[in-house]
């Protein structure tokens, strides 16, 4: 059952006029554990909570802080760990016409229950956080709209293992803090978009679409660009990133990079530690446009293809060798060179710490 509220009255008013309509929105249904997915979820599921759930939709303007504890207090009491009703949650959908504006926080909860928030509209605060989720519950936020903080922090997800899913059109005014726990951010929309980074996110998953990263995700431990997706990095990613076959990565700084798809060198790209180009992967290079790929430690090229695309075949390409890669240690060599050249032939030269390309006229 779905409860739609155009505005939210104080809790004592709900008790005065009767809370039965809200209580009817509480769902109880035991569910078997779901198998671990082999890729990040493309959309959160209310069934994540599996047992007791209050579902609320906001589709009008609300000029006060929304306190989720109001709804959490209406859930059945927690049972012992392992019991069928041990998971409790609040599902809140802020529609495209919904606007929540608070003076201290826009939306907040103390962690009495897990929260699944899907925002299509506006959640903002004049002085505090746009969204502040305290406690150690596992929360999920899906953002299509605007979340804005008045204190420089758009959203604090608090403790617990939290998930943030970014959709096309998602905007944040202020920083995002994943809080404690093991947290993940998923960039998922066929239309792609822009993400300005987040603090305390241990996993960065690029599921679908072409995404531009304009802010750091320094707490990342292990992330991935999935097949068919593209990540253009203009900032810094900590830890390791894996690029699947038919996926593309380019730009910025990352600690370690393992590429089975395509690595492009524009914008300027730096790998602080190790680069591994897997068999069948491609390094795309445009002379005169791309800067040298910088690798802090080893660059393993065995089995990869170097694809060279020139904008114009001219004598300028004959003047001197161009450094493609600089690294502390070059391991292996490209297995193949492909290009759009018609009158020139590329020649590679490998040294202990670099790869160079020069060009010669075809006979």
Write a brief caption for the model:
4% of the residues lie in helices and 48% in strands. It has 363 residues and is mainly beta.
Which consecutive residue ranges, at least 5 long each, have pLDDT under 50? 1-37, 42-51, 82-87
Distance between the termini: 76 Å
What is the helix tally? 3
Helix content: under 10%
Largest sheet: 24 strands, mixed
Percent of residues in beta strands? over 45%
Q: List how many beta strands DSSP finds.
A: 32
Total number of distinct structural domains: 2
Oligomeric form of this entry?
single chain
Average pLDDT, rounded to a whole number, is: 86
Structural class: mainly beta
How large is the radius of gyration?
25 Å
Q: How would you describe the overall organization of this protein?
A:
The chain has 363 residues and is mainly beta. It is built from three helices and 32 strands. The chain has two domains: 1-214, no CATH class; 221-363, no CATH class. It has a 24-stranded mixed beta sheet that branches. Strands 4, 5, 7, 8, 10, 11, 13 and 15 form an eight-stranded parallel beta sheet that branches. Strand 31 and strand 32 form a beta hairpin. The protein is elongated and about 80 Å long. The model is unreliable at 1-37, 42-51 and 82-87 (pLDDT under 50).
């Amino acid at each position: 059952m779905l409860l739609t509220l155009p505005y939210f009255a104080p809790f004592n008013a709900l008790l005065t006029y009767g809370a039965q309509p809200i209580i009817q929105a509480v769902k109880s249904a035991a569910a078997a554990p779901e198998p671990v997915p082999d890729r990040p979820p493309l959309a959160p599921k209310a069934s994540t909570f599996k047992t007791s759930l209050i579902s609320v939709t906001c589709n009008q303007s609300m000029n006060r802080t929304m306190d989720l504890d109001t709804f959490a207090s209406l859930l059945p009491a927690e049972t012992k760990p392992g019991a069928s009703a041990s998971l409790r949650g609040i599902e809140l959908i802020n529609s495209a016409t919904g606007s929540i504006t608070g003076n201290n926080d826009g939306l907040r909860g103390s962690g009495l229950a897990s929260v699944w928030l899907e925002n299509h509209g506006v959640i903002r605060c004049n002085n505090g956080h746009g969204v502040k989720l305290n406690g150690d519950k596992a929360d999920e936020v899906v953002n299509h709209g605007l979340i804005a903080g008045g204190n420089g922090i758009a959203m604090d997800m608090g403790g617990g293992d939290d998930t943030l899913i970014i959709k096309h059109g998602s905007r944040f005014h202020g920083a995002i803090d994943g809080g404690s726990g093991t947290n993940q951010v998923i960039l998922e929309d066929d239309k792609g978009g822009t993400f300005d980074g987040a603090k305390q996110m241990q996993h960065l998953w690029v599921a679908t679409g072409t995404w531009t990263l304009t802010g750091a995700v320094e707490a990342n431990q292990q992330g991935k660009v999935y097949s068919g997706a593209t990540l253009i990095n203009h900032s810094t990613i900590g830890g390791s990133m894996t690029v699947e076959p038919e996926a593309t990565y380019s730009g910025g700084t990352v600690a370690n990079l393992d590429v089975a798809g395509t690595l492009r060198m524009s914008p300027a790209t730096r790998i602080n530690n190790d680069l591994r180009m897997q068999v069948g992967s491609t390094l795309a290079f445009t002379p005169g446009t791309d800067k040298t790929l910088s690798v802090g430690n080893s660059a393993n090229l065995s089995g990869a293809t170097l694809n060279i695309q020139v904008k114009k075949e001219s004598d300028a390409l004959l003047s001197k060798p161009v450094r493609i890669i600089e690294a502390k240690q070059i391991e292996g060599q490209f297995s193949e060179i492909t290009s759009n050249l018609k009158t020139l032939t590329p020649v590679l030269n490998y040294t202990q710490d670099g790869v160079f390309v020069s060009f010669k006229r075809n006979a």
